[in-house]
């Protein structure tokens, strides 16, 4: 059995914060979107089914 | 068919616009999220294409990935050398110094009291910033000895040993804005970033404005980008109240989501054209 990465914080076909339904097959992994229900910044972390997680805080070495 | 590999951390507005611009040019794009890439450290050709557009937001990931992919035969835009140099402001200043590019004076130091003494010798105000950092984070102006002592103590008593280096730079009294010139082999446009605060990053609230880049600024930015070996760069210029223009920083992963509607510089299209242009 393959051990799965913990995904408790991810929502399937919906916002993990407010459960607002988000559907579609046009998303790409890594895409960032804003939830229309609660304005949370979400990141697409999986496709089929669509899994969304709260976008991570800015990492220290991120930038231009 | 033309093909570009695009490495990213997040598909932000910038990456989506570049992707669209590449596809409009009948260029196939293979997307690679940086967190998914696990690459062997050898010289075997990588299965991707010959040109990689590096859009990772992470300095750690982008410089290592660029270095690995170059050994594996890819032409990476920007190169590992450019990313490493631009990602470290001390190395950037050294590269500029080596080519005689005008910039504010700066020094690096490795011990608290020695740095405070050097600041005292040079006079206030000065600016200190992390050697590695972006978006104007932890950039501080030092107006007197107390602030110098406090900030140098923080620099050397917090963080890890690899962060225990102080970069201190001349404070430039700007006329309420700084300038950014985009370079892709040649200068292609620019923005003026206006702020009442002395920190003029758009990530920190500065307002972008259109700016017609004069030939002298274009030439200076092109020299700066060449000094760090960058194919694609955003060169930040500081204009003194006397009209002198100095290179402040060089950015290797150009962001434009906050500014493109004001500047009208078609950066996604220009980046796509540049990347396609380096295909063999």
UniProtKB/TrEMBL annotation, chain A:
Pfam families: Zn_ribbon_LysW. InterPro entries: LysW. Gene3D superfamilies: 2.20.28.160. This is Lysine biosynthesis protein LysW.
UniProtKB/TrEMBL annotation, chain B:
Keywords: ATP-binding, Ligase, Metal-binding, Nucleotide-binding. Pfam families: LysX_preATP_grasp (PF22626), RimK (PF08443). GO terms for cellular component: cytoplasm. GO terms for molecular function: ATP binding; metal ion binding; ribosomal S6-glutamic acid ligase activity. SUPFAM superfamilies: Glutathione synthetase ATP-binding domain-like, PreATP-grasp domain. InterPro entries: ATP-grasp, ATP-grasp_RimK-type, ATP_grasp_subdomain_1, LysX/ArgX_preATP_grasp, PreATP-grasp_dom_sf, Rp_bS6_RimK/Lys_biosynth_LsyX. GO terms for biological process: SOS response. Residues 93-276 form the ATP-grasp domain. PANTHER family: BETA-CITRYLGLUTAMATE SYNTHASE B-RELATED, RIBOSOMAL PROTEIN S6 MODIFICATION PROTEIN. This is RimK family alpha-L-glutamate ligase. It comes from Pyxidicoccus fallax. The lineage of its organism: Bacteria, Pseudomonadati, Myxococcota, Myxococcia, Myxococcales.
């Amino acid at each position: 059995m393959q051990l799965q990465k913990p995904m408790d914080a991810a929502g399937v076909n919906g916002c993990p914060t407010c459960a607002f339904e988000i559907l579609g097959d046009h998303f790409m992994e890594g895409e960032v979107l804003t939830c229309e229900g609660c304005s949370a910044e979400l990141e697409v972390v999986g496709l089929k089914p669509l899994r969304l997680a709260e976008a991570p805080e800015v990492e220290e070495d991120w930038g231009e | 068919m033309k093909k570009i590999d695009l490495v990213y951390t997040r598909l932000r507005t910038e990456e989506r616009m570049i992707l669209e611009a590449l596809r409009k040019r009948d260029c196939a794009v293979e997307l690679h999220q940086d967190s998914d890439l696990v690459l062997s450290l050898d010289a075997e050709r990588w299965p991707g294409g010959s040109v990689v557009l590096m859009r990772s937001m992470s300095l750690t990931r982008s410089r290592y990935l660029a270095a690995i992919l170059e050994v594996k035969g890819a032409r990476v835009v920007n190169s590992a050398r450019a990313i490493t140099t631009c990602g470290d402001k001390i190395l950037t200043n050294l590269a500029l110094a080596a080519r005689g590019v005008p910039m504010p004076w700066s020094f690096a130091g490795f011990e608290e009291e020695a740095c405070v003494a050097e600041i005292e010798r040079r006079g206030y105000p000065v600016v200190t910033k992390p050697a590695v950092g972006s978006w104007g984070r932890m950039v501080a102006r030092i107006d007197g000895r107390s602030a110098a002592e406090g900030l140098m103590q923080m620099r050397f008593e917090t963080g890890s040993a690899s962060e225990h280096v102080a970069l201190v730079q001349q404070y430039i009294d700007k006329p309420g804005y700084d300038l950014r010139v985009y370079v892709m082999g040649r200068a292609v446009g620019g923005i003026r970033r206006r702020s009442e605060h002395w920190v003029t990053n758009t990530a920190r609230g500065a307002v972008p404005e259109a700016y017609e880049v004069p030939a002298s600024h274009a030439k200076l930015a092109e020299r700066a980008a060449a000094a760090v070996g960058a194919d694609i760069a955003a060169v930040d210029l500081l204009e003194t109240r006397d009209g002198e223009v100095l290179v402040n920083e060089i950015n290797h992963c150009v962001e434009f989501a906050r500014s493109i509607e004001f500047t009208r510089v078609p950066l996604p299209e220009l980046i796509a054209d540049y990347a396609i242009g380096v295909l063999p």
